[in-house]
Every structure is written in structure tokens, then in C-alpha cells.
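Archive transcription. Copying these from loose printouts into the bound notebook so they stop getting lost. Printout 1 of 2:
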Amino acid sequence: MIDSFRLAMLYMAFAIVATLCNILTQYVCSYLYSGDFSILISIIIGTGFGLVVKYILDKKYIFQYKTKNVGHNRHIFFLYTVMGILTTFIFWGFEFGFHYIFETKEMRYLGGILGLMIGYIFKYYLDKRYVFKVV
């Protein structure tokens, strides 16, 4: 088991990686498509990509969790996603809130980053207790 400080630093680094993947994906989506619902579409796609990246990193390096088979991995990813849905409301609240208040994409991204930071703190504790628990 890794010590608490190293765990916190690793988790923070992975949160930054997943956040960058999320925001970069949003940026690329917005660049490729600027029509109806483009902001919503880019946020959903960015969220999904960030979720998959973070799941892979958390499972392997943070919780050092090994799934038994593909079905078990699918079940664990489902639980991880459910916990992610709860914290996504925090993230989206900040991102949409900053977009509404400041009306610029830069401030929307800043709101998204702040929301992700807060959401990841909650997500760690939810994942530790409900997803990657040792039975």
C-alpha cells in the first residue's frame, strides 16, 4: 500500500490529467462543431473521455484494484460511473454557472476546472467506500 502523501499527490496528478483530457476534448469538439447544442455536446463528450481516463488510472494506481474478469470490470466501471454522475453535477454546475455569469469560453473552462477539482475530492471518498472496496 502506498503512503498517504504519495497517494494524494498521485491522485491529484491523475485528476489533472483527466481534467486536461476533458477540457481538451471539449475544445476540440467545439472547434469541430459550433452548431446547435455545441456546448452541451462538447461537455458531455469531454466528461465521458475524462471519466474513462480517470477510471483506468484510479483502478490501477490509486486503488490497485484487480477485476476478476470482463463482467466484473464492467460492474466496477458501472459503479464508478454512478459515483461520477453524482460528482458531475458539481462539475457541470460550476461550468454552466461560469458560462452563464461570464459568457466567455475561457471562464466556462475555468468553472469546469474548479468544478472538477471539487468533484474529484468527493469522488475519491465515494470510490474508496463504494466502488473499490475490498470484500
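Printout 2 of 2:
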Amino acid sequence: MRLFSAIALPEEVRLRLLGLCHGLPGQRWVAPENFHLTLRFFGDLDGAQARDLDDAFSRLQINPLEIRLNGIGFFGKESRPRMLWVGVDKTPEICDLRRKIEYAAQSIGLRLDREKFTPHITLCRIKSDPGFAFGNYLRTNSLFSHPAFVAESFGLYSSQLTPSGACYFLEADYPEPFYSWPETLDI
């Protein structure tokens, strides 16, 4: 199974992100049910490794963390972008959760590639040259933001690649999911 850890998004956030999924014809937009904040990708694991990872994650103590979405970005070069995303503020709490997840994975013998962590939510995979529309899209949406939400869990997901894109399946949650809105919102 291709596995990764991620934070699911509340319905309100997914609907708001859906409003950004236009303006670049011919690209592969992510379905709203697949929006998530990836914490760590593990790749292909066998059943025993997956069970060990599940067991290690079930012992993690996590604190609620505030997640705030800000801005639009992309991977690749502006002349040849590969992926379009919404940024997530890189808080110490998100980084701490990622470190705990990596430590748990390494404690069961998984070897993890070193990778730069850029918290984001993928909106679109760029399949063909978007031309001038890409710059226009970035300018139009660069100030995107969403009020913070609090995540109290993360999940272990499997990914199945299909001709129309990846499908994600929640395999387990750590602990049970719960979202709340901060008592004071800066709107």
C-alpha cells in the first residue's frame, strides 16, 4: 500500500478551496474530498509495516493545532509549473507533529528520505502549459486566506493511482477526529 499521513480538512474549508479550482483550463484539479494537508509520505509498505506504523501512531500524544491557510504557491518554475497549492502557515506545532510522525516511522525501521517540508494543500496538478493564464491566476488569488481551524487528529491514508488521478482512503485516525473553530476569529 502507498501510505501517507495527513490532516483532513473540515467541510467548510474544502468548499472554500473548491472556489479556487477554476481558471486554468485543461489541468487536473483535485476533487474536494481529496483535499488534505500531507504531513509525511511513506511510499509502498507491506502489511506488516503498515500494522507497525499504525501501532506506533496510536501511541503518539498530540496536541490540538491551529491551521491557517494563506496564499497560493506552486512547485516547479513559473515557466513550467508542476503543481498549484494553497499555503499553510508553517507553525512550530505543525512541525512538531511532523517530527513525531517521522520519529514513530523511524522507530519501526522505516527509512525516510530527507525532504523539505512545505505545508500546503494541493489544488491542481499541471498537465499542460497553462501559458499566460498561470500568471493571471497567481495574481488574482495571491491574497487567498481562510480563518484558522483547529485540528485534533491526523490520519494514515492509502493512495491508489488511477488514470483519472489518485484516490485517497482513510485507513486510521489518531486519535478520533475533532475540529473546532477558535473562540475569536480575525475576520
